[in-house]
Design brief:
This protein has 13 helices and 8 strands. The structure holds fe (ii) ion (FE2).
């Protein structure tokens, strides 16, 4: 069911240094050689990038610029109905362009004075510890390509629309940015792979796919929902569970489908208390304790 699966196409570099993004045959851009060549070139930019340097500029085609315009406009209408107030205020504060795709460097320069965050280009999947750990240093790894223009409302992988309209707007909120950072510190602190996965699942079910009660309605704050044209209309019909660390940290999810179990925070304060409080001082031992208590029940 999920339209915007968090799936990354593998990126390979051959012995001649040629970079290839291995799109699945089902990918809307699979049979488009021009798109494929651009994806390879964009992946190369990310692989060659060194932290501390500006994010390299990407050229987008006129069709891709049109995808951004259409999706920005449609999502803006949906945000007004379905997004939490904290996100709407942050979006207003950031003021992303709606008529063209902003460069990651440009969004970094808009975000830094607000909350300190900036982007790092990612060619594809970033290992969990790097991805989350970098949040502690105010860095957000981001893809730079955009979905294929033949399917403006569908992408099988996270693209710049997800990274910027979903995460960028969220990172313009002081309160959400603080949560991203504390999750990053947690990822740095834990040592075992199990504990790291627990930390990342709590992130997944909150900052990627979280929903929140607001003025008697269910609203969304997760970047994955707020950047998905389809999912934003569906989340109210999903199974909604209370915000529970043990459940979030141990629930399996299928990254290729809509999230059919979502966790509801009762307010921003509640989210900060439960998820923020957990990330602030969790370690391998406390996570093992929470996991054991779930297995017993
Ligand atoms: Fe994401």
């Amino acid at each position: 069911m999920m339209e915007e699966a968090q799936y990354f196409a593998p990126v390979n570099t051959d012995e001649h240094g040629e970079v290839t993004v291995e799109l699945a045959t089902s990918h809307p851009g699979f049979a488009d050689p021009v798109y494929r060549a651009r994806r390879n070139a964009i992946a190369r930019l990310a692989l060659d990038h060194r932290r501390g340097d500006p994010v390299p500029e990407t050229e987008y085609t006129a069709e891709e610029q049109e995808v951004w315009r259409v999706v920005s406009r449609e999502l803006a209408a949906k945000h007004r109905r379905y997004a939490v107030g904290e996100f709407l205020a942050a979006k207003e504060r950031l003021g992303l362009p709606e008529d063209r795709i902003p460069q990651l460097q440009e969004v970094s320069e808009m975000l830094r004075p607000l909350t300190g965050f900036r982007y790092l280009p990612a060619a594809g999947l970033v290992p969990l510890r790097d991805f989350y750990g970098s949040l502690a240093d105010f860095y957000f790894h981001s893809t730079q390509y955009i979905r294929h223009h033949s399917t403006p409302f569908y992408t099988p992988e996270p693209d710049v629309i997800h990274e910027v309209i979903g995460h960028g707007n969220t990172l313009a909120s002081d309160r959400f940015a603080a949560l991203y950072r504390v999750a990053g510190h947690a990822a740095r602190r834990v040592e075992t792979q199990e504990a790291l996965e627990f930390v990342s699942k709590v992130f997944w079910f909150t900052l990627e796919f979280g929903v929140m009660a607001e003025a008697g309605e269910l609203k969304a704050y997760g970047a994955g929902i707020l950047s998905s044209y389809g999912e934003i209309e569906e989340f109210r019909g999903m199974t909604i569970r209370p915000l529970d660390l043990a459940a979030m940290g141990t629930t399996e999810y299928d990254i290729t489908k809509y999230q059919d179990v979502l966790f509801r925070a009762e307010s921003m304060d509640h989210l900060e208390e439960v998820a923020g409080g957990f990330w602030a001082d969790c370690d391998d031992e406390s996570i093992a304790r929470i996991t054991r208590s779930t297995v017993r029940t």
